[in-house]
Write a structure and sequence with these properties.
Chain lengths: ~270, ~575
């Protein structure tokens, strides 16, 4: 694998929009050509080298390219948007839409990611070692066709409406989340290893949500099915005892499943 | 300023010009007999010259359009463009205001009508017109579920109803009497709908048939340039063609009486594709377009537009509130709904006309059947009921479908569900439109129906110099086979002139800031009745409306190019 290192210079107040930072665009270009790739500073087209030092070695094949962003890019949006192969490693924080519409390959964020990480993701892997903002793996604003495939793992906490309109794939949040996890979800799997404040699975029609921590308030539109032990989903066994719910019956014919750990959640069962 | 368009193949159906090679002279925004030698020359050799396009029915400005824009950011994302010298815009099915003007102009369209304006929201509509450059326009206020109209007609008082209509057209700066699901939208205010034309609205106890007939009489009494503009009851329901045919019969016998223009019809039925459905459910759904076309062929009191399905993802929006609820129940997508006090209602729902799905395939066939089975292109207008059956930016594709059986068969055989062939007769029709007929359905026919044929839809001296030039040589191009060439040429006009100024060159906007005219009706009725009715209205405002009577009328300042129609269109 050939490595291309982007060292961020000063990050501007007006954010950069850099959907061109991905192996698919870098492939087949020399380092000098990569320096000239267009990104946007606000609505002004600029060169990649205006905001990043570029070094390393490129390749013809995007799957052979690893892009390393060596520092914080907390004012840079859309890194890896639509990427289909290769790897991106961000050694710091990143702004919104990291890995949006991603089809394949792998992105690792060592710091925190702002909202909309992995929006409408189709495939590939997105791993965030810090916290993520709202709308992890959600649909585009207004759209009802959300994440289709791939895996998102957040090691820290995440915000509201994780997996909104999710249609497939897997989201794992190892920390806590705020409200409305899996809202409008139709398919796929969301695992919350920490706590979820409220309204888990609001208006979900299908798919599975598992919460291992505490759910403060639970929605009335779910039917309680009893306790299940060591649940099996997606080819893996999740140990422990879980309350199982079917819903959200606010939606006609809904077949969503929510598992909530028995421990600490006695207040949500009838 | 003088200008001469030389050597083009001119298609001007109103003056029986069918592809004749001739020059068109322009002076001070009008078409004239001749110009001096100093005139600027546009060489139109090997090109087609037509009058600027006229869209008689689209939803391009006002409250529900803006709901569509605001609640569909995912539609905005699909199309975004910059226009040199103009404003950037976005939106595929519901483009922003500026982009709406530019998109029309690029296709050679210079006039487009907003087909449904809630009177209470007239100011919003005119504000959006203000920001919709280049195209002349007018708005159709909604009358079919209006409390005043229903009460006057129930009392049988045509004179008072006419006085009210005259007042409403004046204060809303409206152009025609528009009816949407008459009695049905009022019933929606009570949680219901009406079915057929003889079921009365709740409380008001008046039927759709009575409202249609009454307003048709009012229309001719006021001598309006356009006839009543009717969106029939039961839109989009399997088996609705019987309601449609019955509605067509209602105003029959009333004499056309326009003060201006050359309209000879008394009914304009809109987006008839949505009203030509057979069967009883979506399972046995089928086309009844042949029955509708047969009626239109045999009767001369009406004219229709089609509302052609373009097989896109689009946004439906209409004052037919209950229909939008039905649609939302069917597709489960987001639904906006509004009741406009005393006047009308509206709903908005996104819709995907998936080509591989059975019902949209038949709907596509039904629209084209109407175009191809109605023999006289003087009786049918090109529309998509933008954005309901598809965006207006697809007109070039529809033109190409109409001109090429091969193009249609390519869709039928490769892209559509087999229901297109099995549930409609479209695969058996091999008629192909000529350029002359294309100019009819997109220019002369709508202009005449709207009462604008003195200045629009033709190229004789006296007409507004709204002219489209397309890079098609009719002597060497065979539309049957070169359909993609036709589609591209109609989508990107070589030149478009608006009031004698070049606004488009080679498919690019070159003049982006000009306001279009706003046509509106300034009629006079007998003063005593008018005063009495206005007093009546004032009383009702105090009783029921959430706004003051004085705050209701749209001030003149909202119309940068006001074009009141009193008896002459200049």
């Amino acid at each position: 694998m050939s490595e291309i290192i982007l060292t961020p210079l000063d990050q501007p107040d007006v954010p950069l929009e850099a959907s061109n930072i991905k192996p698919d665009v870098f492939a087949g270009k020399t380092i000098d050509e990569i320096k000239n790739i267009q990104i946007f500073h606000g609505n002004t087209p600029v060169k990649l080298s205006d905001f990043f030092e570029v070094s390393g070695e490129s390749s013809e094949n995007p799957a052979e390219i690893g892009i390393v962003i060596d520092g914080d890019v907390d004012r840079t949006k859309r890194i890896g948007e639509g990427m289909s192969a290769g790897e991106i490693l961000i050694k710091g924080d990143v702004n919104m839409y990291v890995g949006a519409e991603m089809k394949g390959g792998r992105i690792t964020v060592e710091g925190n990611a702002a909202s909309w990480a992995g929006q409408t993701m189709m495939g590939g892997e997105l791993e965030i070692l810090g916290d993520a903002g709202d709308y992890v793996g959600s649909a585009y604003r207004g759209d009802w066709r959300g994440m289709q495939g791939g895996t998102i793992i957040v090691h820290g906490n995440a915000g509201n409406e994780i997996g909104e309109y999710m249609n497939g794939g897997k989201i794992i949040i190892k920390g806590d989340v705020n409200i409305m996890t899996g809202i409008h979800m139709n398919n796929g799997l969301i695992i919350i290893e920490g706590d979820a404040v409220a309204r888990v699975g609001a208006e979900m029609a299908g798919g599975t949500i598992i919460v291992n921590g505490i759910v403060q308030e639970f929605l009335p539109g779910f039917e309680y099915l009893g306790v299940e032990k060591d649940i099996e989903v997606d080819g893996q066994t999740i140990p422990g005892a879980f309350y199982k719910f079917l819903g959200d019956h606010a939606i006609k014919g809904a077949k969503g499943t929510v598992y909530v750990a028995v421990r600490g959640n006695g207040h949500i069962v009838p | 300023m003088e200008l001469i368009i030389k050597n083009g193949f001119v298609y001007c159906p109103q003056n029986d010009i069918d592809g004749e090679k001739m020059d068109i002279c322009v002076k001070d925004g009008k078409i004239v007999e001749s110009v001096s030698d100093d005139a600027k020359v546009i060489d139109a050799s090997d090109k087609i010259v037509m009058p600027g396009g006229v869209d008689p029915h689209a939803h391009i400005a006002g409250a529900k359009v803006n709901i569509g824009r605001t609640y569909r950011p995912e539609d905005s994302k699909k199309a975004a463009a910059k226009f040199k010298g103009g404003r950037a815009g976005s939106g595929f099915s519901v483009p922003s205001t500026f982009m709406t003007g530019y998109n029309y102009a690029k296709m050679g369209y210079t006039t487009a009508m907003e087909a449904a304006m809630p009177p209470l929201l007239a100011r919003h509509t005119h504000e959006e017109f203000y920001d919709t450059p280049l195209i002349d326009h007018a708005a159709y206020p909604l009358f079919g579920n209006n409390w005043f109209v229903m009460e006057y007609l129930k009392e049988g008082d045509i004179d008072k109803c006419a006085a009210y209509a005259s007042w409403l057209l004046k204060v809303t700066k409206g152009y025609t009497i528009k009816l949407v699901n008459p009695a049905g939208t009022e019933a929606w205010g009570w949680g219901g709908n009406v079915h057929g034309i003889h079921e009365p609205a709740p409380y008001f106890d008046i039927t759709p048939a009575e409202i249609i007939k009454g307003l048709a009489e009012v229309n001719e009494k006021l001598r309006l340039p356009h006839s009543i503009h009717l969106h029939c009851n039961d839109l989009g329901h399997p088996g609705n063609y019987e309601t449609t045919l019955a509605s067509f019969d209602v105003p029959k016998g009333i004499k056309p009486n326009p003060a201006v223009g050359s309209r000879d019809t008394i009914l304009y039925a809109t987006h008839v594709q949505f009203h030509s459905y057979g069967g009883t459910t979506w399972r046995d759904f089928e086309s009844e377009a042949p029955a509708i076309a047969d009626y239109v062929n045999k009767n001369d009191h009406l004219i229709i537009d089609v509302g052609q399905v373009t097989l896109d993802e689009t946004t439906t929006m209409t004052a037919d509130g209950p229909m939008e609820y039905d649609l939302h129940s069917l597709n489960g997508l987001k639904w906006a709904n509004c009741d406009v006090e005393l006047e009308t209602g509206a709903g908005v729902v996104p819709f995907l006309y998936v080509p591989r799905a059975p019902v949209p395939s038949v709907q596509w066939g039904i629209g084209l059947e109407l175009f191809l089975l109605i023999e006289d292109a003087n009786k049918v207008c090109l529309t998509t009921d933008h954005p309901n059956a598809g965006p207006f930016t697809r007109y070039p594709r529809i033109m190409a479908w109409l001109m090429s059986n091969k193009y249609r068969m390519e869709y039928i055989e490769e892209k559509l569900h087999s229901w297109a062939q099995r549930r409609s007769s479209i695969a058996t029709i091999d008629r192909e439109y000529t350029f002359y007929e294309i100019a009819q359905i997109s220019r002369s026919t709508p202009a005449k129906a709207l009462g604008l044929s003195d200045t629009k839809g033709h190229l004789a001296p006296g007409a507004d110099a709204d002219i489209a030039i397309y890079d098609i040589n009719p002597e060497t191009t065979d539309p049957s086979n070169d359909y993609m060439e036709i589609e591209n040429a109609f989508a990107n006009a070589s030149y478009v002139l608006k009031d004698g100024e070049i606004i488009v060159k080679d498919g690019n906007i070159v003049k982006a800031r000009e306001h279009g005219r706003t046509y509106w009706i300034d009629t006079q009725v007998e003063e005593d009745i008018y005063k009495e009715v206005v007093l009546d209205v004032e009383r009702k405002f105090k009783q029921y409306y959430s706004v003051n009577f004085e705050n209701y009328p749209v001030q003149d300042a909202y119309l940068p190019k006001s074009a009141p129609v009193k008896g002459v269109i200049l």
